[in-house]
Design goal:
The protein is an all-alpha fold. The chain has two domains: about 70 residues, no CATH class; about 30 residues. Helices cover about 65% and strands about 0% of the residues. The protein contains five helices and no strands. Helix 1 packs across helix 3 and helix 2 runs antiparallel to helix 3. The termini are far apart. The N terminus is likely disordered.
Length: about 130
């Protein structure tokens, strides 16, 4: 069958790839709606959305979050594993450790050394929340 630019083949019949594209657009619209509702969520995806919104703006943040959500759903369906999200406290601790490691690495690159005092952790909580 020969396809033309308007998606019609010989005899005016619609080809299946274009029908599949329309279905894909409908499903991506649903994922964008799901991603845009994460703005007030306290989950990891909500934190990701707000960070992307601050960095890129709202429209690109919605698309980036929808893409991340689609990757998560794909992984769950492909490998048939249950979804397990980390509690917010554990995610905050991982973020804090990663931020401190990155800060130490950057300081070493500049020729400095950072010593972390574990007793002053309660004072630094406001920096990472």
């Amino acid at each position: 069958m020969v396809l033309t630019m308007d998606g019609l083949g010989i005899g005016g019949e619609t080809s299946t790839p274009f029908r599949r594209l329309a279905n894909l657009r409908a499903s991506s619209g649903l994922s964008i709606l799901a991603a845009s509702t994460l703005g007030r969520s306290q989950s990891a995806l909500g934190v990701f959305y707000r960070g992307m919104k601050a960095k890129l703006g709202a429209p690109k943040a919605v698309v980036a979050t929808a893409h991340k959500l689609a990757r998560i759903v794909y992984h769950l369906l492909k490998y048939q594993v249950p979804f397990s999200a980390l509690p917010p406290e554990q995610e905050d601790a991982r973020y804090r450790e990663r931020a401190l490691r990155n800060l130490q690495r950057k300081a070493l690159k500049l020729g400095a050394r950072i010593v972390i005092d574990p007793s002053s952790d309660s004072q630094a909580d406001g920096l990472f929340s």
